[in-house]
Amino acid sequence: MLRYLALKAGRALFVVWAAFTLTFVLLFVLPADPVDLLFDPAELNTVTPEVREQVADGYGFDKPVLLQYLARLGHALTGDFGSSVQSGRSVTATILDVLPSTLVLAFGALVLALLIGFVIALAATSTRRAWVRNLAEALPSGAVSVPVFLSGILVLQIFSFQLGWFPAFGDQGARSLVLPMITLAVPVSGPIAQLLVRSFATEFRSGYVTTSWAKGATRGGIVVRDVFRNASLPALTIAGITFGNLIAGSVITETVFARQGIGRMTQAAINTLDIPLVQGIVVLVAASFAVINLVVDLIYPLLDPRLRATLATGSPLTA
Amino acid sequence: MTAELDVLAAPARPGRASPPAGRLGRLAQQPFLVLSWIIVLVVIGWAVAPGLFTSYGPYDGDSAAGFAPPSAEHWFGTDRLGRDLFARSVYGAHTTLTATLLAVLVAFGIGTVVGLIAGFGGGIVDTAIMRVVDVFLAIPSLLLAMVVVSVLGYSTQNIALAVGVSSIASFARVMRAQVLAVMTQDYVKAAYGLGGGRLRVLVRHVVPNSLNSVIALAALEVGTAVLAVASLGFLGYGAPPPQPEWGLLVAEGRDYVAVHPWASIMPGLALALVVISTHRISTSYRKEHRR
Amino acid sequence: MTDTAEERQDPLLRITDLAIDYRTGRRQWTPAVRGAGLHVRRGEFVSLVGESGSGKTTLVQGALGLLPTAARIRGGSIAYSGVDVTGWSDQRMALVRGNYVGFVPQDPNTSLNPVKKIGQQVIEAVRFNAPGARNAAQHREAALESLRTAGLKDAGRVFHQYPHELSGGMKQRALIAIALAGKPKIVVADEPTSALDVTVQKVILDHLARLREELGIGILLVTHDLGVALDRSDRILVMQHGQIVEEGPVRRILENTTHDYTRRLLDAAPARHAGRLVPTSGVRAVPADAAPVLRAHALTKRYHLRGARGRRREVRALDGADLVVRKGTTHAIVGESGAGKSTLASILVRFTSADGGTVHVGDREVTGLDRRQLREIRRDLQFVFQNPFTSLDPRFTVGKLVAEPLQAFGLVTGRRERTARVVELLTAVALDESHLHRLPGELSGGQRQRVAIARALALNPGILVLDEAVSALDVSVQAQILQLLVDLQAEFGLSYVFVTHDLGVVRLIADDVTVMRGGVVVETGPVEQVFRAPRHAYTRELLEAVPGADHTGPGTIRAARANTSIAHQV
């Protein structure tokens, strides 16, 4: 068990370190002259050599790459990713400013997406009507196919401009959160629903369901008592993908609805080539991903007695 | 004794009887699949020969006829400058689909080879490759693509590369899983036992049998890549404005969405239809090749 | 129910003229059961026998209302104690299932919910069928009682265990407990023991038979194994192509079967033959002092388990196993699951490498050969897998499959010569040119195994290692393949290593036999000797568990009975 823990934690740490290194190589080493990236492209021609040198010195670009890397890594370990080129504020503080807003949006969307996913899967499994099942099976692929920017615009058009139920833009109050949350939840729910529909169907055909039928259980009872838990477990395996969808979706959602948040900040940081900020965001995202997967790896055995047993006795390993 | 008895005992399995009339017969039973193929083929036609589908040019504008709603004359309506949005969508298909194709080729080509090396090589090679794949999977592909584009510079071609690179990891993972699954099959063991060398077994048995689900993923990836390319275009990392590109078309209409919604919605719907169609095709491929 | 006169009118279960179709296309239905009828009376043990695809499982699924959605009942009726339940809704059938009819499913390993404790699963069965309101403690007591009735002595402990913590036999008992929990009048068991070892099978079937006596319930057993049916039933029904082709008491069927198919099934059942199969070409003579072609000495294979807190545990899959195969003979390796027999076979052909011990083919030592030398050895030493559905690459045609070893060794150059050689091989296994361009998916199980054998013979090997090569096949197909193997042996002078769990098959094909258990060789010797006078208690136990061995019948079968009765006395 301890070994399992250590292995998983080690992998998570490796992922974070590698994400840092990858962004370092991409952003600081690969560009011919990283100093170019530090300035607004429009103003680049007006920058004097003296200023460039000064900046290069300030960022340590004149030192050997390895030293730069080690220095940045050392700082990053203490949570210091340097300061934003645009605002001059520390990257960590800049991120922390907007993080809560995105967290609220993402969490709300996740809950909504899970709800949608389970409703679709339960409908597909519980119904005896073929057309309901077919519809429920087709919905998820529609959900992932509609681009977030389109669904955002449609939602805006209908609920804000036509019906006037919700504010169109901004991030003031709970009402302004509703439309972005729906927009973000739809594409996130797609893969979840797809997986759940499939695993509910698989489990519903399995041997122990036959046993339950034979016991005299009814369809609804079987879905709730037997299928639900077995079929829901696999949803945890795509937690990482779901997280990725939430991040990618929030970039676009926050842009469409002009909301403050990590997504919109990422876009701005890329647009202005704010390298330290981009690196900070990527490392933060990778770290969150690693932590989420670590948590899933750790709680999965608690939910599945079979896995618990394998961990306790060890798994067969061919010599 | 012998064959006829064998035939006699051959189970006439219910539900496994062969379908009525080959591939076409099966297609005829799935109207949505047929529709999906038609949509995809038409859009490919747009990309290859746009002039056949519209008489307007993508840049021909008449500012007096700006923001016309969809009509028989302008199927998708017109934009701010009076340019026909249907024509711009048709010409935009070329930009978007070429980028998509490039992206899928990059992801499929590199991902499959990497996955094959990991799965077939095993041991430390596998471990090393998979740890790197982990890292790429840890960064959401849109974010990774944005970073890559920011390094390479803004252009549709670079978007394609960026989207392709960011999907390599998932292809590698699927291919590796398939290779590992195929390698435990008895027929691979049998091939070794019959005197096949590693290379021979790899080429004749492992690769062909592993490719099915990777091809299904590639079909799915076409849809995902169209979305990613358009999303990056929407965010403004692609071709510069006068050019028609699907994501950019939606972005251009977005500023006027309150008053003239179709300018965004029509190109967006076309895009969504294409993605839905590729998903449908991918699903049917997967069903047909499931073992 | 106790009134005998009434009982004669209304059996516990009566199926009349039942017809079930499977949907195979949009408006296309294929019949799976055609006009089948049967009845089971109180206290009666009835067996429904048929090979795969005969429709026997569909028939009982129809009776229980458990048909998959792709199936429909086209005609006929199902009545429980005279109450016609045909066309009842799921809701109403739920009251019949568990309460009136209990069901024991086929595979105990998948038939229990993996994330729930056994106790809870039995309690559910009690609760669904409890007459009147009762409290949780009573439910619990009833569930424990049911577990004990099913023969689980340690019911209290099993109650708190998860399915994966139990052996296959215990899981099947738990499922029997679930079937009994609703106090049903009739129990339907669909191949309840085909996933279990033969000794466990005996215990489970004995227990079912005892339940019939003690509880007075009716039992309908569905099985592919005629031996199992003969041993315990009052009446037997034989099913083929969706129809019941024969019905009658065991004795009548044995002595005087009217139907040709039943006759063939009876003849095919391995347990009903006394001695080795005779090659079609005539009796062969194996010199008693034939030289050994394959020798294994003190083979050991360990698998390491990584234990908790860094402890390392070991499982000995093979522990000092010896084997000698004489030229031109068949040496059977027999044992139950976990005996190490497949590991041994796999080491012989070096799919797996041993931790210790040696293998000699002729005079050459195989252990420790490098890849190139191994390849040379494999020309003389070929392998046939258990499952012909997985051992043939689904994308290769029969012609390509059989030609593969020829190409790998560059033996026959030229397309025409190669095709000629392939056809020659196909003819040897009783297939022909017409099969050349078919894919494995288009062949039956028996045909596929023939292709696998043809492929193994392509290099003219002296030795064939067959790992459960007939276990996945229906009994009549199995008989054909065994005969084919015997014929090929006579023709080419092959030596076989034949791994199997089925002692009946051993008798049909082997000259020598090695009995294994837990990775250790328990007993070895000529088949005659080992079967007639087993020295080890485990061998005796195995022999006694073989179903259908002691039934009187024509010809050779009496001899078989004599054999086993001697075995009993030793």
Describe the structure.
Chain C: Keywords: ATP-binding, Nucleotide-binding, Transport. Chain C: InterPro entries: AAA+_ATPase (IPR003593), ABC_transp_ATP-bind (IPR050319), ABC_transporter-like_ATP-bd (IPR003439), ABC_transporter-like_CS (IPR017871), Oligopep_ABC_C (IPR013563), P-loop_NTPase (IPR027417). Chain C: Pfam families: ABC_tran, oligo_HPY. Chain C: Residues 13-266, 294-543 form the ABC transporter domain. The complex is a heterotrimer of chains A (319), B (291) and C (570). Chain A has 319 residues and is mainly alpha-helical. Chain A has a domain at 97-261: MetI-like (MetI-like fold, Orthogonal Bundle). Chain A has 14 helices and 1 strand. Mean pLDDT of chain A is 80; it is low at 314-319. Chain B contains 11 helices and no strands. Among the domains of chain C are: 39-64 and 89-270, P-loop containing nucleotide triphosphate hydrolases (Rossmann fold, 3-Layer(aba) Sandwich), CATH 3.40.50; 292-301 and 314-389 and 464-561, P-loop containing nucleotide triphosphate hydrolases (Rossmann fold, 3-Layer(aba) Sandwich), CATH 3.40.50. The radius of gyration of chain C is 26 Å and the shape is globular. In chain C, the strands form 4 sheets. In chain C, strands 6-7-8-3-9-10 form a 6-stranded mixed beta sheet, with helices on both faces. Chain C has a 6-stranded mixed beta sheet with strand order 16-17-18-13-19-20, with helices on both faces. Residues 1-7 and 552-570 of chain C have low confidence and may be disordered. The interface between A and B is large, with 48 and 43 residues. Strand 1 (316-317) of chain A pairs antiparallel with strand 11 (292-306) of chain C.
